[in-house]
Write a structure and sequence with these properties.
The complex is a heterotrimer of chains A (about 170), B (about 800) and C (about 290). Chain A is α+β, with helices and mostly antiparallel strands and about 170 residues long. Chain A folds into 2 domains: about 80 residues, Beta-grasp domain (Ubiquitin-like (UB roll)), CATH 3.10.20.30; about 70 residues, Orthogonal Bundle (DNA polymerase, domain 1), CATH 1.10.150.120. Chain A has a 5-stranded mixed β-sheet, sandwiched between helices. In chain A, helix 2 crosses helix 5. The longest helix of chain A is centred in the C-terminal third of the chain and has 15 residues. The longest helix of chain B is centred in the last third of the chain and has 28 residues. Chain B starts with 8 loop residues before the first helix and ends in a 5-residue tail after the last helix. In chain C, about 35% of the residues lie in helices and about 25% in strands. A 5-stranded antiparallel β-sheet of chain C has the order 4-5-10-6-7. In chain C, strand 4 and strand 5 form a beta hairpin. The interface between A and B is large, with 61 and 55 residues.
């Protein structure tokens, strides 16, 4: 139908709405739910600034209709810190390692990094670069993003962060 | 007896988190939580959305625009065309380069995707549907896409609006498609040097058209109140005050009723300096409807219509002695500006600061001539971390020096060193009119050579060349060198103005009674970290911890007038204003301290965060104590309060420099390259935050890598724009992007209050010629002298094919 | 950026999907991962009035062994292919190929069915399926039928699928153990279509190539089955001469488009280079 009811869970909260079928998930999140963390950087599905986490998968929210996410469990950057406001280790790591400048790619990048570390808790630098190859950044040149993710991985694994020679 | 422990000077200095330390960024707290405030995050009650219908033709007369179907779509509030804008005298707008530009197509279109109609609707989906339903009847006209043909006698007329004007904004025009000619240097002496030169080189060095492509496109929300006559404009503006003044000049609205706010900006890189039709149309729509109007462009619109960069065709000649001393430099540039000259240059500089083309070398004579022409392409030219055309000419001089070195049979490093401006020659008067403030090129170059093991790399390269000739390997190795000097910090009022406003910048610093600080500056960060670094300058200057200092930029109501952030000008100009304002505060605080401590001002000395009595250090007042005192215990006759404003008119530009070395391996059978190593040594004078400097360098190197190795906004012979989406425009991912090694020397600027020069654009300036030189260097032993950018695999393969390497 | 309007349907099983397609307007499209279709819809290059989402059909998922064939459900994602142990054990070239398709996010959602079904000459899996001699299972109003991948592609975006048919599964005969394999893809960056790519499956006996099949990606209107190129190396120990013959055989059947990645001549030559490199890698693997 051209309009449907869609229900999903976003950052732990059940939400539902009647939306046009063609409404992209990114617009549903940003405009209907007011979650302006994930951003839009292109219309050809290349930049990854819109990356969210759907049922344990990194997905570009600009390339899926909201109706396709019926019943899904979605995590955006806004859901990464704890309910008490304690930052996710990745959020701290990006700040610690200067893994951001303008901040526009950051929500998608951190959300992707989160899933990356769930897939692979001990990635090499090359695996991290492959792992974030769906997220473009124009400011940092990626190098400090790689360090940030390594730093977070070390913290999650309870080991000391050692800067590897790339 | 146990004296109470006072923290040492060192401990107190560390607590300040002032200049020189790797202070973690204040901005990151909100960015990492997705709580930045970007333009598209803004939602105002009743807000409408605007979208453009754009031209499919690159050059055509518009016979008819039918907006009836678009207007009939439910939810569409208005559809504007040039006819509607003429009613408010806004169908055309002035550009920063002294030209005029169509806001909406007026009678004809001049480049593909040019704006024709602006649809305003209740949501962006409806606006998109309606924009598709605008119908346009065109009469196609012949196109001009080759700038070298723009001034042919029978070239099509592009700008009918100025067809008969023989004088442009920058002097006489030689042809109806000509914009300006700009010359500097001594032509006669230079020509003479070439006539008697022992060796000369001459090459057409083309820096292809590219685009800065920040991750966030250009956008705005304009809200006009019919009740109060106030207009508030949120936008992606690198120079919000300039936008405000431009709006005042073109709209007739009084400037005090115009509130321009740049919130967080997702990358600028020069893309967001000038005004675009989307801003004007959104403003007109808001004025007409009385409700807020948002305009957000998509990526294809951004890449194909907003400020492109480069498109400089530079015939570059060097004259030298046989033993390698340069004796002259002659450069003729053809600049393709597209349909309108919308360059964001300071107004007297139609070719920006192209006369830095002498670079790091002591040319006794030089001459530069630049001709700008119109073509059927998007307007613009100055953008993408270029420092006003410095990237273009740095490419030219660094390539040309390599070409001459090859002709002379001298190592490219040795040839450069032989011709470096020497340390004792600074301040150095260049043959093209600049006074370089400071430099120590020999030290920087030597450091680069030592760290990279340059001579061993050359030995390795020689061995690999022999192996290639023997057929043992299909890989060739290139070593690229670039030693750039660039010019930033626009700029002194005697040289630089934007639309007549001098290019000073400003800082207003206020200390509250409890010793906390609020600073507001005329600059506007788009990722450079000013909220963090400006506080560091203030912290060191006045001894209050950076964490107690809030920095605001971007709201033109509260920020002192500034010319914005681009051209690496923030540290040289706003940074200087910050230091000067801080010193005014410190001077006042010293008077208060002297009064409180009952000594003469001259009896006091400054120690990190306090004034203390010389010889009697237990007698002190911290800045925090003085702040409190400023509100209740100032000396008789002194005004209470502790604040200062500085508008800083820099006495000169600043001249950062650097030594970059790249090692690259190329597979001749595919044209694919691999950057084995990239070393970048930058000298930006005093370093405020080394962590942020390193981040800026990484980012600029990555942009330069994209440019040199694959970026291009091209036009086919029919004027169709190619490569204007992220499917084709080469933005490297983390996988392709090389690992960067950064290093530095520190040669302070003698005229800057804290000796800082600025660094944001240096890596784009230096890296592009470094990569290009690496590719060229790889093929030299096979007889190649110049290969044009971009060095994508296909083009590199083609070079190998033409050299017969595939037989 | 904004697609046109459409009606959205989400059937619960294959037969409902087929009935839906037969009833809806002829411009109704199925949507699998959507990462080819939705970008086209956002640029308004595709404007279906109905979308039939296959995501709600469990029978379209899963990977299982049936005798010596591996059956891969059409809605299996690239990510699932990479993670699947059965495929890694029996058809390791699949994992190698999936890894160089698009980027991590796209691989989470993009399906093998979507990659093979619509005849996009830039997609990687069709050449692989040809090299593996896979069979596509199509379900339609007249029932199920099977068609060899080598017979399925007719032109750009033109296939042997009939209106109303849905590709539901891919049947792949497991290559002999041991076998050599390689997918050599020349691309400018992660996420790009191939400038040229070659898929090779071969077996070696007594140091010589016994069987060989080669598929080529994005160097013609469809993926190509390079019969002559493969023939050139059978019975050889993959010496320089036979490699050159194989490259030439690959080049001879290409007719690539010129585009931003290079001229037609370049892409043809790269088909040859990728073929040679894939053969060398596959041979080395088989000889371990």
């Amino acid at each position: 139908m051209s309009k449907s009811n869609v229900s999903m869970t976003v950052n732990g909260k059940a939400v539902s709405a009647e939306v046009e079928s063609r409404v992209l998930l990114i617009h549903y999140l940003r405009e209907n739910l007011g979650l302006t963390g994930p951003h839009i950087g292109c219309e050809t599905s290349h930049c990854g600034a819109c990356t969210v986490d759907i049922d344990g998968k990194s997905v570009k929210a600009c390339t899926i209709f909201a109706v396709q996410a019926e019943g899904a469990n979605i995590l955006t950057i806004e859901g990464m810190a704890g309910a008490d406001g304690k930052l996710h280790v990745l959020q701290e790591a990006f700040r610690e390692m200067h893994g951001l400048q303008c901040g526009y790619c950051t929500p998608g990048m951190i959300t992707r990094a989160h899933r990356l570390l769930e897939e692979n808790p001990n990635p090499t630098d090359a695996e991290i670069r492959m792992g974030i190859s769906g997220n473009l950044c124009r400011c940092t040149g990626y190098q400090n993003i790689v360090k940030a993710i390594q730093y977070a991985a070390a913290k999650i694994n309870g080991v000391e962060y050692k800067e590897a020679a790339e | 007896m146990n004296a109470p422990t006072t923290p040492t000077s060192l401990e107190r200095a560390e607590k300040l988190q002032g200049m020189g330390c790797k202070r973690k960024r204040v901005e990151d707290v909100r960015f990492t939580q997705g709580r930045g405030n970007y333009v598209d995050d803004i939602k105002l009650p009743g807000m409408l959305h605007g979208d453009f219908h754009r031209s499919s033709h690159p050059h055509a007369r518009i016979l008819k625009i039918d907006t009836s179907k678009a207007k009939a779509v439910p939810g569409v509030v208005a559809v504007l065309t040039a006819e509607d804008l003429k009613g408010v005298n806004l169908a055309w707008m002035p550009t920063l380069a002294g030209d005029v530009q169509m806001v909406l197509a007026d009678g004809k279109v001049l480049f593909q995707n040019q704006e024709i109609a602006f649809v305003v609707a209740t949501d962006r989906y409806i606006a998109a549907d309606a924009a598709d339903l605008v119908e346009v009847e065109y009469e196609a006209l012949p196109v001009v896409v080759d700038p070298f043909k723009a001034m042919d006698a029978d070239a099509p007329v592009l700008r009918e609006d100025i067809k008969d004007k023989t004088d442009g904004a920058h002097g006489p025009r030689k042809h109806y498609n000509h914009i300006f000619n700009w010359q500097v240097g001594d032509k006669d002496l230079t020509d003479a040097a070439f006539v008697k030169a022992e060796v000369t080189t001459k090459d057409l060095l083309v820096y292809q058209r590219v685009h800065p492509c920040p991750l966030e496109t250009c956008q705005c929300v304009v809200s006009f109140s019919k009740i109060t006559g106030e207009i508030t404009i949120y936008g992606t503006f690198q120079a919000p005050h300039v936008i405000r003044t431009v709006v005042a000049l073109i709209s007739g609205l009084p400037e005090q009723k115009i509130h321009v706010i740049s919130p967080d900006i997702g990358g600028g890189f020069g893309n967001k300096v000038g005004a675009y039709p989307g801003y004007i149309c959104a403003a007109v729509a808001s004025i007409v409807t009385g409700v807020p109007v948002k305009w957000v462009e998509d990526r294809i619109e951004n890449l194909s219509t907003t400020s492109f960069a480069r498109d400089y065709h530079m015939t570059t000649e060097i004259a030298a002695t046989r033993d390698g001393r340069v004796t002259g430099l002659r450069v003729n540039i053809l600049a393709d500006h597209g349909a309108f000259d919308a360059c964001a240059d300071p107004s007297k500089w139609p070719a920006g600061f192209a006369n830095i083309v002498t670079g790091s070398y002591d040319f006794p004579v030089a001459h530069l001539s630049v001709d700008g022409v119109y073509t059927n392409k998007a307007p613009g030219g100055v953008a993408y971390r270029c420092s006003f055309r410095v990237t273009e000419v740095a490419y030219a001089i660094e390539r040309a020096m390599d070409i001459m070195a090859q002709k002379l049979g001298i190592d490219p490093v040795d040839f450069r060193v032989k011709n470096f401006i020497k340390r004792e020659q600074f301040p150095y008067q260049s043959a093209l009119g600049w006074e370089y403030d400071s430099g120590d090129y020999h030290t920087a170059m030597q450091k680069a050579l030592d760290v990279t093991g340059y001579r061993q790399l050359r030995a390795e390269q020689k061995a690999k060349q022999e192996a290639f000739k023997r057929g043992e390997t299909r890989e060739i190795m290139g070593i690229g060198v670039a030693f750039f000097t660039e010019i930033v910090g626009a700029g002194p009022s005697k040289n630089c103005d934007i639309l007549g406003i001098a290019m000073f910048d400003s800082a207003e610093i206020r200390i509250h009674p409890t010793g906390r600080v609020l600073g507001r500056m005329g600059s506007k960060s788009q990722g450079q970290g000013h909220e963090t670094t400006w506080a560091q300058i203030i912290a060191t200057e006045i001894g209050i911890p950076a964490d107690d200092i809030a920095i605001e930029e971007g709201n033109t109501d509260t920020a002192p007038y500034g010319l914005g952030t681009y051209g690496s000008r923030s540290t040289p100009v706003a940074g200087a204003a910050i230091a000067m304002a801080a010193r005014k505060i410190k001077a006042k605080a010293q008077m208060i301290a002297a009064y409180l401590l009952e000594v003469h001002e001259g009896d006091l000395e400054w120690d990190v965060d306090r004034f203390r009595v010389k010889g009697n250090p237990e007698q002190f007042k911290t800045m925090a104590q003085l702040a409190w005192a400023a509100y209740n215990k100032v000396p008789p006759g002194m005004e209470p309060g502790l604040e200062a404003v500085s508008y800083y008119d820099p006495p000169n530009m600043t001249y950062p420099f650097g030594a970059y070395i790249c090692v690259m391996d190329i597979d001749v059978d595919t044209g694919v390259h691999k950057v084995r190593r990239f070393y970048a040594l930058d000298d930006c004078g005093t370093r405020i935050n080394p962590m942020i400097i390193e981040g800026q360098v990484h980012g600029g190197l990555t942009e330069g890598y994209g440019i040199a190795m694959g970026q291009e906004i091209a036009y086919d012979e029919d004027g169709n724009v190619k490569g204007a989406s992220l499917m084709d425009y080469f933005l490297p991912t983390a996988v392709e992007t090389p690992h960067w090694e950064t290093d530095y020397t520190v040669t302070p600027s003698p005229h800057h209050p804290i000796g800082a020069k600025g660094v944001g654009e240096s890596p784009n300036v230096g890296s592009v010629p470094c990569f290009a030189n690496a590719v060229n260097d790889a093929f030299k032993f096979l007889g190649s002298t110049h290969i044009a950018m971009p060095h994508d695999a296909y083009r590199v393969w083609q070079v190998a094919e033409n050299l017969g390497l595939h037989r | 950026m904004i697609p046109g309007t459409f009606d959205y349907h989400r059937p619960a099983n294959i037969s409902d999907a087929i009935v839906l397609l037969s009833r809806l307007d002829s411009d109704a499209r199925v949507i699998a991962g959507g990462h080819s279709l939705i970008p086209m819809m956002k640029l308004r290059l595709a404007a279906p009035s109905h979308l039939v989402d296959l995501a709600g059909i469990p029978e379209l998922k899963g990977v299982r062994l049936e005798g010596s064939d591996i059956i891969v459900g059409a809605m299996t994602t690239q990510h699932e292919i990479i993670a699947n142990d059965l495929l890694a054990a029996h058809i390791p070239i699949l994992r190698e190929t999936s890894t160089v398709i698009a980027d991590p996010q796209v691989r989470y959602v993009g399906t093998i069915g979507g990659n093979v079904a619509n005849g996009d000459p830039g997609n990687d899996m069709p050449a692989l399926m040809m090299a593996l001699d896979a069979t596509y299972v199509l379900s339609g109003p007249k029932g199920d039928r099977r068609i060899a991948a080598r017979d399925y592609y007719e032109g750009p975006y033109t296939t042997a699928a009939r209106p109303g048919e849905i590709l539901t599964a891919i049947r792949i005969p497991a290559p002999p153990k041991p076998h050599g394999y390689a997918y050599e893809k020349l691309k400018r960056k992660v996420g790009d279509y191939a400038t040229a790519a070659a898929a090779v499956i071969l077996t070696v006996a007594n140091g010589k190539i016994a069987t060989c099949s080669i598929g080529l990606t994005n160097v013609a209107d469809t993926a190509l089955f390079a019969k002559d190129a493969a023939q050139a190396v059978i019975g050889t120990a993959l010496d320089k001469a036979s490699l050159a013959k194989a490259s030439a055989g690959a080049e001879a059947i290409t007719s690539p488009a010129a585009d931003g990645r290079g001229s037609a001549e370049y892409r043809t030559k790269m088909a040859g280079v990728m073929t040679a490199r894939a053969l060398s890698r596959a041979f080395a693997r088989a000889s371990v």
